[in-house]
Write a structure and sequence with these properties.
A hairpin with a 5-residue loop joins strand 1 and strand 2 (about 10). This protein is an all-alpha fold. The chain has helices spanning about 15-35, 35-40, 60-90, 95-120, 135-155, 175-200, 205-210, 215-245, 250-280, 285-305, and strands at about 1-5, 10.
Length: about 325
């Protein structure tokens, strides 16, 4: 805690980022490893097929529906895991104060944006309140408001640094591998944000599979896919903002930290590939996803591991 002149007691940027690190890490663990427990915590009841199927409707398979939904949870959790890693990497005491400050600003903004986005979601006429009580979403709003407020406090306490709008495209010795990683994230972020259903259902050959899902599951999936896109964009904004004020030390930390998440991502992908084979779903995007993500991870890891770089204590 730090007492700022003419301000009440505020949380430091380091503390705010550490709290966000562990908050996001909790969701990362639950969504990737304990999705059923997480769903139960939100009183979700999405997994049962209709007792009396509609004649002529696509077949509803409860196991397939749950496997698909949990796979999407995992994808969402991995992106939140990247946010946790970025917050953790920037929370180190030796990190530039400017880098910490802009990270707090971006994270505070996006938590606030999620409150608005999911608030609009709960107001939709077809919101499946019988399958997931709205009170579950309200609980999220409270938590997100708290972590957003902490990051705003950390931003103010660290000098209210703004990203350098003239240097938002990463540059320097680590600029290109960071750009490659950001472009890879944006490839998924933009379509998911603006046309989630078309991008996922039609673009990935899942029409017949998803056709048998219940309306509640379809509704949840549409929101999950959009939120995945938003978090991908969120992570790109954090990286871009940090690199605009610190081109070497923080950039090196970002590459080193996100490589760990990339390895987990490929491991989770291999698990989902096996599940797809066992459930009879041959994902037409499987080879493309593996090739691009493996190439990005290999390139980024090769750059930071082969570069003689020494981390220094911050100078600002």
């Amino acid at each position: 805690m730090a007492l700022a002149e003419n301000h009440p007691i505020m949380v430091s940027a380091t503390t705010a980022l550490k709290i966000n690190q562990y908050f996001c890490m909790t969701f990362f663990i639950m969504m990737t490893t304990f999705p059923q427990t997480l769903g139960d915590g939100y009183s979700m009841d999405f997994y049962s097929c209709p007792a009396k199927p509609v004649k002529g409707a696509p077949k509803c398979d409860s196991t397939m529906m749950k496997a698909f939904l949990f796979g999407v949870f995992s994808i969402f959790g991995i992106q939140i895991g990247m946010t946790a890693i970025l917050c953790g990497a920037m929370a180190r005491p030796s990190v530039s104060k400017k880098a910490q400050s802009v990270t707090c600003l971006v994270v505070a903004f996006f938590w606030a944006a999620f409150i608005v986005n999911d608030g609009l979601w709960t107001m939709k006429a077809d919101f499946p309140a019988d399958a997931m009580p709205k009170e579950s979403s309200y609980m999220n709003f409270v938590m997100w408001a708290v972590v957003s407020g902490l990051c705003y406090s950390g931003w103010k306490d660290s000098g209210s640094v703004m990203p350098n709008t003239n240097a938002l495209v990463p540059s320097g010795k680590f600029g290109l591998p960071i750009i490659v990683g950001c472009v890879n994230l944006l490839f998924y972020a933009i379509p998911l944000i603006f046309m989630a259903e078309k991008f996922v259902y039609e673009g990935f050959g899942r029409e017949e599979l998803v056709g048998g899902f219940t309306p509640a599951v379809k509704f949840l999936l549409a929101q999950l896919f959009k939120n995945i896109g938003l978090v991908c964009l969120w992570n790109v904004c954090i990286i871009s903002a940090v690199c605009s004020v610190d081109k070497e030390d923080a950039a090196y930390r970002i590459l080193r930290a996100t490589s760990m998440l990339g390895m987990f991502n490929l491991g989770a992908f291999s698990k989902e590939a096996i599940i797809g084979l066992l459930t009879g779903f041959d994902d037409p995007m499987r080879l493309f996803f593996f090739a691009t993500n493996f190439a990005v991870l290999f390139y980024q890891t090769n750059v930071w591991t082969s570069h003689p770089f020494k981390l220094e204590a911050r100078k600002d």
